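QA checklist item 7 of 12: single-chain prediction sanity check.
[x] sequence parsed
[x] length recorded as 420
[x] structure emitted
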Amino acid sequence: MKLRTATLAVALLPAAALAQTTPLTWSQIVEKFESRNPALKAAQLNIDGAKAEEITQYLRPNPYFGLAADGTQLTRYLGIYRPFAGTQISPSISYLIERAGKRELRLETAKEQTGIAASTYLDQERGLLFILRGAFVQLLQYKAMLQNAITNLDYWDHELALNKIRQNSGDIAVIDYERLDQQRTQFESDYETDQVNIRTAKIQLMMLMDSRTPLEGFDIAGPFEFPNQIKSLPEFRNIALANRPDLKVAQENVELAKSTYKLTVANGSTDPTWSLWTTHNPSFNNPYDNNTIGGSISFPIRLFDRNQGEKARTKLDITRNEKLLDGAQAQVYNDVDSAFYTLMQNINLLKPYKTKYLPEALHIRDTVTLAYHNGGASLLDYLDAEKAYRDVNLAYINLVGAYMTAAAQMNMAVGQEILQ
């Protein structure tokens, strides 16, 4: 027995080291995740890129500056060749005037694309937070199972000590004590399995956080329980309709399609180009006018509307995005309803476990244990009662873990943290 106690003490050293580490709460985990996760940091750059595109789309067209040379003599005339004597340099400047609010519409579409990038980022974060929450809950569940295994080991070691005294005094047979001793292997197996599961869950959680903390220096803390009552289904639906980022993306895509159509119509309008120039050549009507100024305006003649196809395409795109919005709303209802009924199922199962089955299993175990110690119950009854108690506790822990996973699913369905 002393050897077993020493072995257990050595095995518990990692757990003791963890106990000295300051555990991280869920809010601290989320904070570190949002600041370190590489996928989120890369997605954030998409928003910055979209904002930079707003600057590009709102730029004004640059004016054109030109120089024209005229009057250079090519051939001799009356035997005289003075090629550059009559050359005149005429500087000019031209500018394209954008009509129909093209520049403002380009900025509007760019801003809407920035909004879509931001909502897409939030939707990606929503999915990753669900994965993070799942890893967090799993670690809490394994910690609860480990604590249960430790409690079972302590209890069984106490029982073995009492039964060793009974065996030494001849109250029970050696074979009966050995059968009791063999039962301890199951508790040891549970303990070792839970230790491995905890380490595996920590590695997954630390990977999502991009943490380089040593495994022994990382731990979490949080409630591992369930509420007696949750919000109603209509409340969850309304929260989801107001907060789901993927639904917001679908809504913003409809607005972007409308703005794109307006921009396409505006692009069909003609844009005039104004030009001004100066020259030193005298005009034909005024030989004394050595410095002159001229101007012109040019614009395309729209004999053919070459923008009809684009107008038709962008108009159809509005209808397409409206249909996608309807589908996104239906998906929101589907996600919320599925998560809600899963939550209710888990709560309905957990309530009788907490108020009835757990106390009953403890009472049965203690009663049968007392009866066995006093010769009123068989060894098989004793072992069955202990196994039933262990099974009920493990079932309760797994149900709480299932509820918390369903709560994470509901948080994902509504687009924000409303259940812990």
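[x] summary fact logged: The chain has a mean pLDDT of 87.
[ ] second reviewer sign-off
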